[in-house]
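Below is one such record:
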Amino acid sequence: MNMIVIILFSLLYVIIRKKRNMHILQQNFYNENNRYIRWGFKNLKAVFKLDIVLLIVNIINLFIKNNLLIYINILYIVLFIIEFNNKKKEQVKLPLKVTSRVKRMFVTYIIVMIIPIVLNIFVFKDTYIFNFIYSLLISLSFFMIFLVNVINKPIEKIVFCYYKNKAKEKLKSLNLDVIGITGSYGKTSSKNILNDILSVKFNSATTPKNYNTKYGLILTINNHLDKFNDIFIAEMGAFKRGSIKALCDLVKPKYGIITNIGNAHLETFGSKENIQKGKFELVESLPDDGLAILNKDDPYQVSYKINSKCKVIWVSIDNEDADLVAKNIKMNHNGMSFDVYFKELDKTHKFNTKLLGKPNVYNILSALAFGLYKGMTLEELEMGVKKVNTIEHRLELKKYNGKVFIDDAYNSNPVGSKMALDVLDLMDGLKIVVTPGMIELGEEQYKLNKKFGEYISEVADYVILVGKNQTKPIQDGLKEKKYDEKKLFIINDVKEAFKIVDDIKSDKIKYVLLENDLPDIFNE
């Protein structure tokens, strides 16, 4: 009877722990570039939780062979209740997606966990040994998920190859112009803006949301493209050298846009030079009759020696000798207006958009360059810019209960965060910043977040930081600028920020900048 109770509650506990660790694995891209394992070693407390107590009790029980089974039963029940209650209270921003891959991993995990039960029944026939082995596996649940991921790799490779070949065959059968978009920041915004502008004249299609991996592109091709599409806009993301080249080998782009090159994913790329070379894999993959659209205000793009023979169009805000130059940029809470000089036409044309921020001016310039190259008129381009939709979580204005939220929650970076503060600074009201800081900036993470804190001090009337430990550099930046500590709040859950915003007394309109929204694996 004791054995049955142990197995029952241990299985319930195993399942709930397995789901959590599977969620962490998924948010770490199934351990691509060892992201999952590196996260585990950085968060050992979260990895083991109370499992270590269970292991110690079973080790004692194994050696003294005393009747501790009743206590082990109670411990399993307590652990399950604690984990179940934590799960109920937890409000995840991005829940576990129960994909076919996750289902296959679940089956493998169950098989692995059943093995000790079978061994005990037919080999050991010893409750104490069984308890020890089982508690060891539970304590190592985080690493068991890693093991299951490794076990399933051959299966996943076969599945991947099947869908990849299917996508390649389908793409070959469609008469499509393919344009790739990459960069350290702004890929999704650039893609959506380009799609909105091109849709005035063409039937363009894009990768949905932030699908920018091999799996995302394959899924898009197989499920979203059809014979009526003229242009396929492929967003391309990367964590290391060779990733963009692999995506280009898959979709064979004729055209390419690099938004900008910065410190994003510096930790996995290893160096800025690697980031630069990694992004330019797109340009180097273009055919001789292809087109690359580059940013002349980005030193990493200007300094790169291009080996491709493709045509290059440069866009800029600050360099007059670029092919397209934006001037007279005016911004308010309703959007932006600016003039664009087209060198090829020797003409200047005015554009209006609902979007905010200089990064979006660059994105619009790249889209205008491509649209003009594909034969769109200035009037069509103007119409396209005017109809560009605001982009979710990217300097998106939201009015709620008399407050205005500037939602820039997606994937903050050093360039974008500064631009977001510039936008906030333009607003005529009480300015509040809510942020957990920036991540994946390698050795420069502390320095860049501290600088971010210094910038915040110049703009914000109130600051709400999410996560005491991860926002330490921002706190240091604020202290250095002698920011008023009474106007600084440090919390552990972003949802607490909204109550604080409501409680702040002011006759002015509250403008709240939500800068970055880290995945659940960064919750403290």
Confidence is low (pLDDT under 50) at residues 519-524.
